């Protein structure tokens, strides 16, 4: 049934023998009926083009395809463009072995036979669960999210809508089909968790290695500073040995105040005097004492 908004317009809707509906309107100027609208507009508008559980998509080279978790009933017929046989389940449905519902989106809903306006989507699911013959369910009014549509046995006349268009439907599936989907999700969660764990471990190892390097550098710097101090100390001692400071009074006494009688000979730097062992020991003891005093003064002043 249809009603005209503008009753002054004369129109006719005529179904032809090949299944095409033509809308005719009266053209006052030409005094004739003109073709205003006809359908189907494309091959997917033909009723049941892809058979049971098949979906028509005008964007594909092969317009018919099976819904996910379904397969062609007769691949040989489909290869020659005969889609009448439709699709069958990949896993047969047995309510005694468990089942659930899988969501399909962006489709034109199949032909339906039962509707309940007073139900919501959750009540619709509960009602469908009670009857094993219930194949699928969805909401009646998608804009309000209210009402219930139920399907029994086969689903026919489904069309794929563009992304973001069409409606959604929940189709009863064997429990094993749902388990594979959940298993993939679980596997994905495990993989993601492992990636994060490995990443955290690598980050922790990097921080530990960095800290060890910094401590090693600090120890090396400390050793380098210590080596410099030791080197400077050794150099200082070396200088003390190379240029000893000998007490003047001790040398005067040992040489009998530089007596001519104690001269052994003369070199490039002046005369060479002889001394006794006791006098030499006294000179060396005095020299050692003075070297120690110099070392203490250097520590106190700098």
UniProtKB/TrEMBL annotation:
Residues spanning the signal sequence: none
Lineage: Eukaryota, Viridiplantae, Streptophyta, Embryophyta, Tracheophyta
Keyword Transmembrane helix included in the entry's annotation: yes
Domain annotation Apple: ranges: 95-174
InterPro entries membership: Kinase-like_dom_sf (IPR011009), Pan_app (IPR003609), S_locus_glycoprot_dom (IPR000858)
GO biological process terms on file: recognition of pollen
Membrane-spanning parts: 189-209
Superkingdom as given in the UniProt entry: Eukaryota
Keywords: Disulfide bond, Membrane, Signal, Transmembrane, Transmembrane helix
Listed PROSITE patterns: PAN (PS50948)
Gene3D superfamilies xref list: Hepatocyte Growth Factor, Phosphorylase Kinase, domain 1
SUPFAM superfamilies cross-referenced by the UniProt entry: Protein kinase-like (PK-like)
Name of the protein described by the UniProt record: Apple domain-containing protein
Native species: Heracleum sosnowskyi
Matches recorded under PANTHER family: APPLE DOMAIN-CONTAINING PROTEIN, BULB-TYPE LECTIN DOMAIN-CONTAINING PROTEIN
CDD domains: PAN_AP_plant
